[in-house]
Amino acid sequence: MLEKVTNALGDVVRKISGKSTITEKNIEEAVEEIKMALLEADVNLRVVRRFVNGTIEEAKGEKVLRAVDPGQQFVKVVYDRMVALLGDTKTDLHLKGPDTQSVILFLGLQGSGKTTSAAKLAARLAKQGRKPMLAACDLVRPAAVEQLSILGEKIGVPVYKEAGATASDAVRVAKNAFQAAKKAGCDVLIVDTAGRLQIDEGMMDEIAAIKKAVEPVETLLVADSMTGQNAVDIAKTFDEKVGLSGVILTKFDSDARGGAALSLKTVTGKPILFMGTGEKIEDLEPFHPERIASRILGMGDIVSLVEKAQETIDEKEAAALQKKMASENFTLQDMLDQLERVGKMGSIQEMLDMIPGAAGQISESDINTAGLKAQKAIIQSMTKKERDNHLIIGPSRRKRIARGSGTSVGEVNKLLKQFEKTRQTMRKFAKNKGMAAKFMGQMGQMGGMR
Hints:
The chain has 21 helices and eight strands.
């Protein structure tokens, strides 16, 4: 996530946090490096100036220069300024109660990921117990209606569409979708509108008319974070012409320079509500300014990492797994399940960015991801009996498993040895309540840090 700016700022933080004394010269040098990193990330010049001036003013105060740990104190100043830049606190959707219908209007340029984001948000709301409906009102882009229909079917959310509707029918379709959602008992209607390759009056007039017709509680701009400063200019124009309540940033990954995320709130005054972090339906995350600031500064984000883990395994499964670990009933099938759950949490790089101290220090290329795939292939090439009881896997079975998984007998032997060692370690851990309590306490302290 925002790899270039994270690496640059992470280096500055590591350099300054290790100093036992801080001078005005140290502060000026560090802030100059931060300024260059922000400018290279395509952050708005006015935003950079405000950030730099505020940081210097606060960091040169007696509190930092005479602090018990001035290096850490300076890092906190930078962190607090970064959080303020990103929006201070997380902003939630302002939806009405489940007995009243709420409309969310989506708008943005073509190619920003608007239609996919509408489906992602619908899936997220459905998971939270809401009853969403999607409205296909993008009648300009070829196949937009079909795309939304396919996504709606995939996530089990109804899609309102009208066969034969043309670009001039968008307002009527939106009105009819509102009535259809009401009739179907759907409490949230997400309206996907038409985008253009660039802003034009026709698009703005159409969106303004749809907004007037359906009276949305949220008017969200979907912006491509890879466009940097351009995304901020687009947001300003949409806000002036139509009025925005918030922004969803898509393609928020390591290739994005960061200019959009770091400039939007200051320039437009509108909060970032969500960020798209991948192609999968579940790759839409709430935007937590304090967590993103922590990641950008290379300080990790343990809270989000734990939340991701909790999403892939429920309490009953966790309790059952702990029981298995303690009684030595942990099998190769359980190991395969865990490997697959880790895969569902996102890319290895994304998880590394959340681990304090790992961002910029360990990259995905440093981890043997091919080895993890080979391990999965080996276990998947076993029979159910073999997965449930690894002790029956003799020489002939190992040869067959190696052939089936495209690996060698040596690799199969290595996996079985590792598995046996893992079982022993897990058993000790599960039975040692003191060790487990200590671990959970450490996790709690890390989760409570800000």
